[in-house]
Amino acid sequence: MERTLSIIKPDAVAKGVIGKILDRFESNGLRIAATKKLQLSRADAEAFYAVHAERPFFNDLVDFMISGPVVVSVLEGENAMQKNRDLMGATNPKEAEAGTIRADFAENIDANAVHGSDSVENAANEIAFFFAEREIS
Ligand code: CMP
């Protein structure tokens, strides 16, 4: 069964919508195989988003991701990576379709409520970044 990584970002955690977002996953056929709340260090955020290191928004992204705790989860199901991306909606909430997580809970392209892996290969790396295999079941 396919797996993907989800992060509920500091804006959504601060708003108190962890449960509402996790419910979107479970109500749409994505099983929560692992989940935990944690505060990322600057080094964590820089390493996790290393692929974006040269992008102009990198420093703002890292600052935002360490501004408060996040909830990281492993989601499992058929086509889990794409299904999670469909549930999240477009990266920029202004472009996100009605009824998606970002349309309903996100503020702007930086504080956009959730992250989801963008390929099955990246999902495996992102899951390994946060979870030991024994934490996933
Ligand atoms: P995420 O899926 O977590 O991956 C990288 C994040 O960078 C993205 O969501 C956005 O929150 C943030 N970001 C800020 N500006 C941009 C941009 N111009 N293009 C893509 N991502 C951006």
UniProtKB/TrEMBL annotation:
Its EC number is 2.7.4.6. Its main location: cytoplasm. CDD domains: NDPk_I. It is found in: Cytoplasm. Its cofactor is Mg(2+). It comes from the Bacteria. Pfam families: NDK. GO terms for biological process: CTP biosynthetic process; GTP biosynthetic process; UTP biosynthetic process. It catalyses: a ribonucleoside 5'-diphosphate + ATP = a ribonucleoside 5'-triphosphate + ADP; a 2'-deoxyribonucleoside 5'-diphosphate + ATP = a 2'-deoxyribonucleoside 5'-triphosphate + ADP. Major role in the synthesis of nucleoside triphosphates other than ATP. The ATP gamma phosphate is transferred to the NDP beta phosphate via a ping-pong mechanism, using a phosphorylated active-site intermediate. Homotetramer. PANTHER family: NUCLEOSIDE DIPHOSPHATE KINASE, NUCLEOSIDE DIPHOSPHATE KINASE DDB_G0292928-RELATED. This is Nucleoside diphosphate kinase. It comes from Sulfurimonas sediminis. The gene is ndk.
